[in-house]
Write a structure and sequence with these properties.
CATH architecture of one domain in chain A: 3-Layer(aba) Sandwich
CATH superfamily of the largest domain in chain B: NADH-ubiquinone oxidoreductase 51kDa subunit
Oligomer: heterodimer
Structural class of chain A: alpha/beta
CATH architecture of the largest domain in chain B: 3-Layer(aba) Sandwich
Helix content of chain B: 40-55%
Largest sheet of chain B: 5 strands, mixed
Number of strands of chain A: 35
Strand content of chain B: 5-15%
Strand content of chain A: 15-25%
CATH class of the largest domain in chain B: Alpha Beta
Largest sheet of chain A: 7 strands, mixed
Number of helices of chain B: 20
Number of strands of chain B: 13
Mean pLDDT of chain B: 93
Amino acid sequence: MATLYIDNKPYEVKAGKNLLETCLGLGLDLPYFCWHPSLGSVGACRQCAIKVFKDETDTRGRIVMACMEPVADKQRISIAHPDAVEFRANVIESLMTNHPHDCAVCDEGGSCHLQDMTVMSGHNYRRFRYNKRTFQNQDLGPFINHEMNRCITCYRCVRFYRDYAGGRDLNAFASRSNVYFGREEDGPLESEFSGNLAEICPTGVFTDKTLKEHYTRKWDLTMAPSVCQHCSLGCNTIAGERYGELRMIANRYNGEVNGYFLCDRGRFGYEFTNSDLRIRQPFISKFPVTKQQVLAEVATDIKKGKVIGIGSPRASLQSNFALKQLVGADRFFHGVSDNDHNIADLIVKILKEGPIRVASMHDVQQADAVLILGEDLTNTAPMLALAVRQAVKQQPMKKLAKANIPAWHDAAAKELLQDEKGPLFIASINTTKLDDVATATYHAAPDDIARFGFAIASCLDRSVPSVSNLPGELQSLAQRIADALSNAERPVIISGASSQTQSVIRAAANVAWALHKKNKNTGLAYTLAECNSMGLALMGGHRLNSAFDAVMNGHADTVIVMENDLYRHGKAADVDAFLNKAKKVIVFDHIVHRTVEKAHVVLPAGAFSESDGIVVNNEGRAQRYFQVYECHEPIQESWRWIVDISKFENNVGMGWEHFEGLTRTIAEAEPLLRDINRVSPPASYRIAGQKIPREPHRYSGRTAMLANINVSEPKPPVDPDSPLSYTMEGYKGLPPSSAIPFFWTPGWNSVQSVNKYQEEIGGSLKGGDPGIRLIEPNLKSTLSYFTELPEPFVPMKDHLWTVPLFHIFGSEELSVLGDAVAKRAPQHYIMINALDAAEQKLSENQELAFDVEGQLYRLPVKISTTLPKGLAGLPYGLPGLPNVELPAWLIYKK
Amino acid sequence: MGRKLLLKDINVPGIKSFEVYRKQGGYASVEKALKTMSPDAVVEEVKKSGLRGRGGAGFPTGMKWSFIDKKSEKPRYLICNADESEPGTFKDRFLMEYIPHALIEGMIVSSFALGAKTSYIYMRGEFRWIFPILEKAIEEARAAGFLGKNILGSGYDLELYVHSGAGAYICGEETAQIESLEGKRGNPRNKPPFPAIVGLYGCPTVVNNVESIAAVPHILNMGGDEYAKIGIGKSTGTKLISASGHINKPGVYEIELGLPVEEFLNSDEYCGGVWKGRKLKAVIPGGSSVPILPADLFLKNAKGEARLMSYESLADGGFASGSMLGSGGFIVMDETACIVRNLWTFARFYHHESCGQCSPCREGTGWMEKVLHRIEHGHGHMHDIDLLVDVAKKIEGNTICPLGDAAAWPVASAIRHFREEFEYHIKYPEKVMNPKHFEIEPFRSEKNLVMA
């Protein structure tokens, strides 16, 4: 700790930080542009100027940039000194010489950091009386809009895009006041994290193009804390609505999970909620009916039939549990393929019974050595890939301390470290986007990856079964990796479900356990398939194939499928047979898919933005998403349909009425989920007797927006499930960390206001980061190493071992239904190795007919030199591409 | 007749070639250093000589060398800064074009002193035609065994490369130059860390001006103490001056530091006086970025003492009444020159060359250029003059690299000394319509008119 005198007032502050973050952390206002807590300091914008004094007697002092100066004990600084104030106003004045004065019509106006800083600096009179410089804008693809005239050249965009996220196609061009941030030519930004530019940019150069499609001032949105639904990481988001449409997803800071950023699938994947494919009313035999009619129908079906329920990895714990309760635990089935089911169970077993604490994304970022087994993170868990990109900087950063350079000094750090990268090893099926920062990579079939993992574990601990006849260079690579992991202070092993191979997951556990014997700081992280795969696995239920059997054998005749397209989880022929055999198929969902088309009864469920629910991410962190806006009648959450059905059926109900009662029931019934009623404050929670408003106090048009229908303003809906109100009235201060609908503090109208919500800059939110971890390691674990070593992969003549290849844009069911993401999805293809292509005399894009597990395909060939010989890659989950359980053998068809 | 070192043999026919240069005693310093001296001894000699950086800042070269991180196990680099782009300065170009081996010889002994095994000459992009001259000189030196492996059997290896810039003035700033050499955008770095610790490719690096490096062989040949005897006070040795503007004999001259400015301006050996018999109006003694001095303050300082061509004497009076020796870009203006127009030209240059990294310089230089453009073309307002002073003040000292200062100083000094001329432009817009307005009717101070 150090004592810092700011304008003659003493403060106890943490030593080693820079003066800017220290001042901001103390709640003082100091304007800045180029600094960002995740990007560090470069001292380019000169906006955070303050005065530093030698001692008490020094009255002149000298101007320094607060972001470039470390805190020193007994240091005396002044923010309010007239020289510093004038200097800051002057920098703004010079920035404003070329910035358009069009705030009133600018997309960013009112939520603009530049605007806030201008007001803060006091600059208010324009002395520059010349033409402003202008630029041509570029088409940067479906996600990001470009408006270069607004640029103030803070360089944050390229520093984020290139240095932080590893993108290559955005750069700074030209010089002087003509610096241009863009691509060499028009075209979509290639990085999977380009959406963050909209939040990184302190003004309106890069803005959210999907928001522009249905533009609304950000403070005119009704917002609620939400959780991303598009992969298993559970990034925290803010979802905003107006006129009954979801219009924007923004980052919601969570120090342990996603920090300041989101991936593009998470940010732009929300458009499915407004899609034409939405189910907006109940149907019986494809005819629209009323709520009462459908309730009567379903209640009768349940009373008469032998009912089974199929849950979903993309539905909340609440909905899954409600279904489980409705049909009975022994008639509840997970709606995932048996392989996925086994993998999720295996992962839960490893994490629950093993000795290693699951690594959060924050832990991965801090790791100084990383081993990835079998995952293409950029496509299966994008934000984890971003975390790994930061992890490779950790080992080189240790040199900074020796050179007396603080870690936040980005400019100096970059000069010292240049392109040095810490140890990152990737064993994956095909090349991944992280390969460019990897120390070494190994591309092989899943079983070979598993064998390689076993070999690494065996190098770490001789009691792990060793792998015989591993090629020499692979054995030495395994040794090298084992050494690098052993030398690290905080190594992390990452694997996951996407290789669809249990042995890979076991291998990762072996490596982590062997390492844990040497280093208790070892971390282990698994990714799963969907946003609530983990929650479903913790809840328990039967396998999907048993559901199929139950119907085929006549043990059941009525099927309730909840928020699930079975065609994505089972083989088309099996699902067809199952749905045809069932006497009655009842589907709850918010979107039309093949299973819905086969249903006898369809009930319109709320999408995440219209629902309350809890999902559990890959870390085992239970997180709540709140309803953003009231559903349009008769849409409602699946769990609310179920309570309505049960009331209709026997007038008794389920024993709970609302979210809270349901959550309490789950906590009581499910031992692994007993902590979930601590995830969010209860509905009765009030601060100073007030609710937390979903709308900022600047919200406008409330009395006018529905005046075309009725001039009397309707009564705002009441939310029985949460302490959030649907209006702008309510408590204006900081809400509890798990219930922050938007970031705003006086004078800070942009997302930069998040600084004021944190314990310390870049640390956890005040009151702790949201979410409750449900999985803690068993420190007295007696689990012994896995010994099931798979056989090496041997190519088979005229066959190819087909593995799924994942795509950030396209492989996920919901996001691809939105226009923006769909534009970035790849065409259908089958990828094979160049040698196999030569053998079969196939050329690029030539059509190949083949059969996998009885499923016929006819797809254009993509030739790869990185996919191992004997393997074929089939893109996973693309719309229109039939699903088949992989990996499996492909047979050529003539 | 002052002593000549660098340009001693400039008139020897064929001095560009290795044979002639060698015959004139060239490369003797390499033999002396590599065979008889330790690297530290070379540094010591340069320290003793009092040689100051000839690029403009005048920082003692020996001291700069002694900062290099000797504890680091990384390779060390020497970069010769041949990105000479300051308006009014052309001495390095002259040296490289006409006596290329002087630089090569200097590079070898300097690299030896610093322990650099690889050295670079970073040359201004516009000097395209000098590129083959230096390449050829390097090849000749290599053929003669002065470059490459095991030079002169001393066990010392050195590779020397010429790298051409792409036409950015900012790449003459040492850290921007390092960035550019690394293949990056030429934006200056924040200091610390200084290049002597973390420079090229993260390794200890020294960046020196062409003329400084070319002076090292002479220091070794005659000894540091002997070299220090040339010149006056802390301004030791000889200096190349690029004389341009309204003089009879523009060109590059080698002078002994301490030469009276009046002698340099008027003697036939040097500039040969103001041309066409006109009156001297002002002089910029050290390249476009140093403060301009009106004739009276140039010839004599505020105390009435005659000025000398030395670092100290030209700086006498600080920014109020002094200037700087800078890089030796000696620009002379007669009474027909328009200070405003000249300043506008400089402002245009600095605006064009600002790298665009930090705000005050990026936005401020363009603003100053626009204001000056308006005043010069007769559209100015009286408050524009104070605005200019204010904008310049806000740039000065507040930027990452010295380009901001270089752009601000000329503005501040021109207004300080020639404010009336600015006011004239504003008061009589019709008189300044013609770009050659002061040639038609030279500026006369109205104060004097009234008094007369």
